[in-house]
User: What shape does this take?
Amino acid sequence: MAVKVAEEWLATCGGCEVTLLDLGEALLDLLPKLEFVHMPVIMDHKYYGQMGEREKLEIPEADVGLISGSVRNEENRHVAEEMRRKCKTLITVGACATYGGIPALNNLCTVADITKLVYQDTPSTDAAATPTQEIPALEERVYAVSEIVKVDIKLPGCPTTPELLAEALTCLLEGREFKLTERSVCDECPTKREKKAVTAIKRPLESVEFTPGQPLSEVRCFMEQGFLCQGPATMSGCGGSEKVTRCIKAYMPCRGCYGPIREGANPMVDMMGALSSIGLNPREIVDRAPTFNRFIGAQGRLKPGMGGR
Amino acid sequence: MSNEFEPIIIAFCCNWCSYTGADLAGVSRLQYPPNIRIIRVMCSGMVHPNLVIDALTKGADGVLICGCHHGDCHYLEGNLKAESRADAIGLMLEDFGLEPERFRLEWISASEGPKFAQVMQEMTMAIKQIGPSSFRTF
Assistant: This one.
C-alpha cells in the first residue's frame, strides 16, 4: 500500500516544492510508493471543504507530512498545528521551515515597524490603516516550524537538495534512521587555505579571483580573499554525492543556507571568530547579524535592534 | 548569609603566563574575591568567541581572557589572535544585549601575581555594580 503524503507551504517561495520535482529519476522510483493526499501547490483541496461547508480547518490524515516555509501569520500556525495532528511523521523541508529562512530577517524589526513601512511609509503607497479583516494577523515574530510543533526530521537548505529529500523519504519507507552530517562546508572545500587573509573585507558584488575553468584546488580560499564565505559555520551536504557544495562549485562564497553545523551552534559567533582569526577586521562588516543569520533568523537568533549597522 | 549579589566570573588563563601569575598570587597569599572560576587553557589564542558567548548566555556574569603580554606568547602570536577576537566579541555583546563590561581581555605575565589579584578585584567590583546577567536563570 502506498504511503500517504500531505504537503503544505507556509511563508515560502515555492522553491522547495520544485525540489520535489527536481528529484529526477529518483522520483520515478518513489512515486509508486507515495500517494499525495494534500498538496496545495498542485492540488485543489480546500481547508474548509470544497464548498466551504466545514467549520474547522481540516487536512486529511497522512503518514508523512512535508512542510516548507516559516510561520509568519496565524494561518501558518493553524496549518502547522493541523499538519502535526494529522501526520505521523512531520518533515520540515528547506531553510524557512527549519530555521526561519529569508522571511525570518523580519525578526530584526517589530511587527509595528513592518506594517508602518508597508502601509504608510513607502513612497508609492497612499498611506492607509493596516488591514485587520479577512487576512490572518501577523505573528509577533517569524518562527521556524519546530518552534510551534514537534518536528521529526529537519531538512535544511535554500532550497533543500533533491538528494537529501529523496534520502529522507527513502529512509522513512525502509524504516532506517535519517541523519544529517555534522561536517562544515570548509571540511569539504577543495580551495587553497593558508590561514591568512590577503586583503580587507570585500562586498559580495566584487568578484572572486579565479580564471574560468581553473580547478578549485588552485583557487585561494574565498574567505582569505576577503569574502564573507559562511563555510566555517555552515553544515555541508548541499553538494549531494559530489561533496563540494553548490555555491563553492560555482566559484561563489557560501551563503549559509544549510544552517548551523549542529543544533545549538551560533553561526554568527563562529563567523566573527573565524574572520578575526585570519586577520580580517570584524568592524568592517556591514550588517553582521542579518549577514550571518541570513537563512536562520528564527529560534531567537535575530532580534529587533541587532545588526551592527 | 547576606543577600548581596555574588557574580560568577569565568577567567580563561593561558598556561604559560596568566595561570602561573594566578599561581604566584596564591603562593604570595594575595587576597582576591572567590567569584572567579579559573579555566586553564594552553593559550589565550585558543579561546574561541563561542566559549565566551556561551559562558555569558548560559549563566556566567562576566568573562575574562588572560594571556601573555605582546611578544611573550609561547606560541609566538596566539595572544594577537586573542586580541583580534576580543574585538569581535566586544561587537557581539551588543547583539546579545550584554553590557560591554562583562568581557575583558588582560595581559598578565607569570611574575605579575599582584596584577592578577588586582584585575580580579576590579572585575568582580565592576560586575557587582552592573548586576546579574540578563541570561541568568538561577
Remarks:
- Chain A has eleven helices and seven strands.
- Chain A touches chain B through 20 residues (CB under 8 Å).
